[in-house]
Amino acid sequence: RFVDAGEDICYWYHAIDIKPNGGEQKILASEFGDDYDALPCYEQIYALAGPVQTYRITGDPAILDDAHRTINLFNRFYKDHGEAGGYFSHVDPITLDPRADTLGHNRARKNWNSVGDHAPAYLINLWLATGRDDYADFLEYTFDTITARFPDYDESPFVQEKFHEDWTKDQTWGWQQNRAVVGHNLKIAWNLMRMHSLRGKEACQDLAERIGGLVPDHGADRQRGGWYDVVERVLEPGQKFHRYAWHDRKAWWQQEQGILAYLILAGTTGKDDYLRYAREGAAFYNAWFLDVDSGGIYFNTLANGQPYALGTERGKGSHSMAGYHSFELCYLASVYSNLLVHKEPMDFHFRPTPGGNLDGLLRVQPDNLPAGSVKISDVWIDGLDYEDFDADGLTVTLPEGHGDIRVRVRLTPAEVRFNADLLGVENGTARIARTGALGPHDIKYVDRALQEALAKGATGLELDAVELASICPEGLRFLVFRKQKAGADFEIALAGANEAVADAVRAAEFDEEITLI
Fold this sequence. Notes:
By secondary structure, the chain is of the alpha+beta class. It has helices at about 40-45, 50-60, 60-80, 110-115, 120-130, 135-150, 180-200, 200-220, 250-270, 270-290, 325-340, 445-455, 475-485, 500-505; strands spanning about 1-5, 10, 15-20, 25, 40, 90, 110, 160-165, 180, 230, 250, 300, 305-310, 345-350, 360-365, 375-380, 385, 390, 395, 405-415, 420-425, 430-440, 460-465, 470, 490-495, 515.
């Protein structure tokens, strides 16, 4: 990076070439075709992705200083301070002027990347790590711009992505023309829901759900699964399907956007269709994008899932593919699945830098989740229980003057979807209380309680089902199978079951194996 102390900014080099003699040549301006000889906003944005994620774990003040100076760069030189607002996509590498004639087709342009990519790349993580209002305000500004400028539903089911300075549509730029990048629509939906959780903005959820409802019919492969790459935004007369811009291949990063968009929509709204889309997208990604022989993620696949291994897309690393999207997918898919969908606890690990976290607080919320949806249940420092934390505020007060420590934090959903607790074993009968709806993913909790009961010598099982809302067929089969394995004299009873649960037992003809009392 280059630090300009006089302007209190820093910007990040496009690359550094290593010379044969071991010296370095700094490459200031971009050498990629779309952005040649310019400083594209998205390169500066993504330069912060790794450092700020590291800052979340360490609280290193040097990283925060870099982020602060880079944001100064955005607000001083990329931001349109006129009435139109927003952020320009490129600036001249010498004058830092977004209107310089040297920028050619990128002169005075705005796009999705320059406005919307701040949030997922670094800004949400920066707010989560610091809790600072100015970062939250920055997020709100970008999303207000998106909801005001990007919808274009009178013309297309896809958003408009590229603009002139005054927000008139730019539908003649380079390769994009009047085309939609399917993954950008999904990415917008995903991040709108994150903003909605931060400040309760209904406009964000409304647009996210509109995108979530439209894109499957216009940008998904409904036969084989997965999300397409670039398609024409508008149907011509007589057409039923959006034409591919060049091919029907599918890119790894667009699958990520779809999985995360529908997981957070499902976890926030509880709508089954969203969860189905998330699982269908994850199934396609897991089946075809993982190189299970050599490791890594394929850049592209054909429509049928066959890896596309030609040209620059043969590589698993390039100017547009490193680790960010893959790491983000693994991390946030786990967060949304466990904490929002399955309602299961998760552990998170931190290594605070001595002298970092200037206010002494370690903020541990893993993402912008709905308010009150999770709480801290346990904290350990260097393996020992630690009690100085705010369970609802999701902060840990670090020991004053701490050295090199390891912090583990367990987050638990405030609303438990299903729970099974062993109440005790009396006269050989184990009593297990069950709460919530027993689905396929919850059988392990019943099994855990049952194994604990058997270890204490239980010869029968009474399930307190007063708070049991429903039971899935897999759950019934599990109980009957466990009864079979425990022996002919082992009895299982459901006490206080509601009509839905009792009817499920009778409909499966398991009422002789499971006694209703």
